Task: structure prediction
Amino acid sequence: MAVAAPASDAKPRLNVPPSMASALRLDPVGLGAGPSMPSPSRRLAEPPKTPSPSKTTYSDRFIPCRSSSRLQNFALIDSPLSPAKDDTPYSRLLRAELFGPDSPKPTTATSAASASPNTNLFRFKKDHSAPTSPFAKAAAAHHDCTAGSGDAPSPQKPPRKVPKTPHKVLDAPSLQDDFYLNLVDWSSQNVLAVGLGTCVYLWSASNSKVTKLCDLGPRDSVCAVHWSREGSYLSIGTGLGDVQIWDSSRCKRIRNMGGHQTRTGVLAWSSCILSSGSRDKNILQHDIRVPNDYISKFSGHRSEVCGLEWSHDDRELASGGNDNQLLVWNQRSQQPVLRLTEHTAAVKAIAWSPHQQGLLASGGGTADRCIRFWNTANGNVLNSIDTGSQVCNLAWCKNVNELVSTHGYSQNQIMVWKYPSMSKVATLTGHTMRVLYLASSPDGQGQVTKLYGSGTYFHQLEHRLLCVILGSRHSQEATSGEEAAGPGGTRSEADEMLY
Result:
């Protein structure tokens, strides 16, 4: 069967719809068919041909021209908010924190949108016709104030006011007037322990219940009290040199440990070790998990030990004595790792900082009157300040970097210091005798207690710090009538007895 050969002059065709075939001009491409292709040199020499404007050009890409549109701000304008939502307490608080309490109230979203629409963070084309933001000048002014401009100074926090009238009064007679004893402590379960003569009394701050824990008898006396960290057990140092441990929930003695030759005037708990200091110049380490009375003895002082304090990580023990020395010990050696001798009087007041590791504060007696700050890593003195009076106690505030000190001769004041500037936050005066004892409470009530003779007065010194301060039994009244009485000038209805 014969097959007809295709004609030599047949043109190639594309499979396209008939409606588009008329609009397409297809030129044959080949070596022998059609007109010859011009040479490259000829094509470069010929001027470019401009298509006729009347001739219609077709394309398979359709890109709209949006040069007059502003799509950068499309859908970026906030939706209108009601004035009630924009003026919520949270919005006012946030505005005050960011721009200060005197910042002007911003305009509503509707007016702000009509005046100047918001712009996106990532803009790759500058829109010169867009209006500027109304917050630009405010931000620049805020930056100038931050940089130190004197036109609009930043607001300052007003100084804290410390009330000088007592909040609560507790009677505590028979309190010994002895600088070297430690007769008050506050437990982590919010129970106050006070040693009065031969007895120990417990006062619950939650329900104001008073409990008599023990009576040591006529031949003995209470010289020191100190709670364990969990607040369940109370250690008592006696005049005969013993150390007793009592279960406060059952009012039962569970341990009696000897070892000292004379009175035990100071105690300090770590996690499982109870340290005791005595007039016999020794420090005993008692481990309540073993049957022995003590496991080690530290002998470094040349006079009575009157101050003991464990660091918060239980690695170091600081001790102060009537020999004017401050010693720092650890568990690995029975010799002090630091012997600090800059004080010129007895060192009873000792406090480790809860805000900085290795920072130790100590206070000297009447002949010294100074509070010194030590770096126990190298033994250097960081700061020293003369208070003008005998330093009886020191206590760090747990929530702010402040220090509370109580004093004896000759001004008998209570002071709150800002560390490290050591500026005075508050000073309470008017005491006729020494403010001998101090303890901090864990419940964050922001109150302080002080005792004049037979009265314990609660004062608010620092937010979230509750302390108890007790003074001498010889003080019968304060210099000011407001100091010696309740908020109305007389004893308040909160008066209670500790016996």
